[in-house]
Amino acid sequence: MEQNNKEESKQVNNPLHGVRLIDMLEYLVKEYGWNSLGAKINIRSFNNNPSMNSSLKFLRKTDWARKKVEDLYIRTKEREEFK
């Protein structure tokens, strides 16, 4: 029980808690479009014949790329809050 409380308190400050990868990617594509997203994060699945499925497959396997998407998502959401 104590373990659960510690994990929950860590998640309170995690801006990605409860956000699925597909939701992040859909949001970023809506905000930037594939071309701008590919310019911001240079990965093949964003730049060559982009699709949601191929991008999700790549991001699930590739930690460094997923981290870049997560960071861009957080920055974009933070900017949105200050508008």
Automatic annotation (TrEMBL):
This is VF530 family protein.
